[in-house]
């Protein structure tokens, strides 16, 4: 008896031993030989070896309170032990970043996993738009180590230093340190508003030095770029 076909050879485990490796576009392989990692709760799909999982919640009382007030944050589990761990989330595409004493501002819904050496927190986005962007929040990942994020489809990384750069608030995944963000409101004119608008009223405008990562989907409904709804007015409800 034998099984014929290329199923098992074409989809064999990636033998690379780096801490974070793309097993394929939608599956992350983590080598536990480099120490614990923090991962999105429920994102484990398989592992080989001896690995334990501990629910870390929202990362302590301070982060829990921030998450409750802002709607932003990441529910994490600590993964520790020996072996290989495989992570995924809703069959989304996976992107791997290595930070070397650097930081990114990322949509909390896009965080899949990161090295235990990376510090994270919820922060208010310091947009030059003042009050209009005063209630927007993101997750900051800072330090040295690996980060895995998810995108809905293959993203584009735009260098904001080359030209004025704009993104739909629901399509922006992250931006790097050195990038500034503002809010642009594009009504399209009175005639456009009378006809129901374009669906592109609120845009995120980027400048400075660095990159902004845009996914080909407007599927981010909450989390990153979350705007406070209590006591807000004007464009506040447009981000919910």
How is this structure best described in words?
- There is one protein chain.
- By secondary structure, the chain is mainly β.
- Helix content is 8%, strand content 48%.
- It is built from three helices and 16 strands.
- It has helices spanning 7-10, 61-70, 190-194; strands spanning 20-24, 27-31, 37-40, 44-57, 76-87, 93-106, 111-115, 119-124, 136-151, 156-159, 165-168, 172-176, 179-185, 202-208, 211-214, 226-227.
- Strands 1, 2, 3, 4, 5, 6, 7, 8, 9, 10, 12, 15 and 16 form a 13-stranded antiparallel beta sheet that branches.
- It starts with 6 loop residues before the first helix and ends in a 13-residue tail after the last strand.
- 34% of the residues are buried.
Report the helical percentage. Answer: under 10%
- Element string (H = helix, E = strand): HEEEEHEEEEEEEEEHEEE
Q: Strand percentage, roughly? A: over 45%
Shape: globular
Largest β-sheet summary? 13 strands, antiparallel
Give the termini distance in whole angstroms.
57 Å
Return the average pLDDT rounded to an integer.
Answer: 81
Helix-and-strand structural type: mainly beta
* Tally of alpha and pi helices: 3
Rg from C-alpha positions?
20 Å
> Could you name the ranges where pLDDT drops below 50 across 5 or more consecutive residues?
63-72, 130-135, 188-198, 221-240
User: How many E strands?
Assistant: 16
């Amino acid at each position: 008896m034998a099984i014929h076909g290329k199923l098992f050879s074409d989809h064999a485990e990636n033998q690379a031993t780096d801490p974070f490796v793309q097993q394929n576009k939608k599956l992350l392989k983590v080598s536990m030989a480099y120490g614990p990692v923090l991962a999105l709760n429920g994102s484990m799909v398989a592992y080989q070896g001896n690995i334990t999982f501990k629910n870390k919640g929202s990362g302590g009382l301070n982060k829990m309170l921030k998450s409750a007030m802002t709607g932003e944050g990441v529910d994490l589990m600590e993964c520790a032990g020996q072996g290989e761990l495989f992570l995924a989330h809703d069959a989304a595409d996976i992107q791997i970043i290595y930070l070397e004493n650097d930081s990114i501002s990322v949509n909390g819904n896009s965080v899949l996993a990161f090295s235990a050496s990376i510090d994270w927190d919820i922060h208010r986005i310091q947009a030059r738009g003042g009050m209009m962007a005063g209630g927007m929040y993101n997750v900051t990942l800072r330090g040295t180590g690996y980060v895995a994020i998810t995108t809905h489809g293959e993203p584009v990384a735009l260098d904001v230093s080359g030209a004025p750069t704009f993104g739909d608030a629901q399509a922006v995944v992250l931006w790097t340190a050195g990038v500034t963000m503002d809010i642009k409101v594009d009504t399209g004119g009175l005639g456009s508003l009378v006809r129901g608008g374009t669906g592109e009223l609120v845009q995120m405008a980027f400048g400075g030095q660095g990159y902004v990562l845009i996914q080909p989907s407007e599927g981010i409904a909450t989390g990153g770029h979350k705007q406070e709804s209590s006591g807000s007015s004007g464009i506040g409800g447009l981000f919910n």
